[in-house]
Amino acid sequence: MNLISLVAAWLAYFVLHSLLASVMFKRVFKRRFAGLYPRYRLFFNLVALVTLIPLLVLIFTGSWTPLWQWQGASKWLMNGIALAGVLGFLYSTRFYDGATFLGLRPNADQHIGSADEPLVISPLHRYVRHPWYFFGLLIIWTRDMNTGWFITCVMVTLYFLIGSRLEENKLVTEYGDRYAEYRRHVAGLAPLPWKILSAEQARRLSRGESPLP
Q1: pTM for the whole thing?
Q2: What is the Cα–Cα distance from 117 to 39, expressed in whole angstroms?
Q3: For 10-67, what is each residue's pLDDT tens digit?
Q4: Alpha helices, H only, the chain
Q5: Cα separations (Å) of 88 from 63, 91, 101, 113?
Q6: Is 94 helix (H, G, I), strand (E, B) or coil?
Q7: Three-state DSSP class for residue 104
Q8: Contact criterion met (CB below 8 Å) for 52 and 20
Q9: 3-state secondary structure of 78
């Protein structure tokens, strides 16, 4: 029953998160609460945080069966990988507008980009299209594993796979062929040696040119 409850709770969380992130819901919210809409990102983040609390309580207080626990050198290795994920995430924040992302700065149109704006490719985005998802996966999959945490890792991974595609569909709509071209040349959730952009290729793609000479 604990496992079923956890799966159901994650599914409910993901459905709510996706609904609030959808263009349709944002349009309805803007029509009904025009004055509050510039703070929609703050509302979105607060809902995501508050609704995550019951899940965390269930995960960390439930009676779960141990699956494996890292020992010796493997524990050092896994902790090192997790630390690299944390440091990578912190480094990546240099390339985001943190105040706008958190909702602390009003954003009147919840805009992502447009065909008239440059497609900015940060150093990490040359290696993987979703650095935050990648670092998150490094962190969660390197922890000691029980049935509850394993279900959580599987559900989060599946959501990243599905959610990233939905997010990218919006980016293709906003940026057009430039993002579609970027998606063809860079891996999605995990870096692949044959799908990496050089700094020059990233600059060419940002200008709307083909990354290949």
Answers
A1: 0.87
A2: 23
A3: 999 999 999 998 888 988 998 998 888 888 888 999 999 999 999 999 999 988 999 9
A4: 2-21, 23-32, 40-61, 72-92, 98-102, 131-141, 147-175, 177-185, 199-206
A5: 33, 5, 18, 25
A6: helix
A7: coil
A8: no
A9: helix
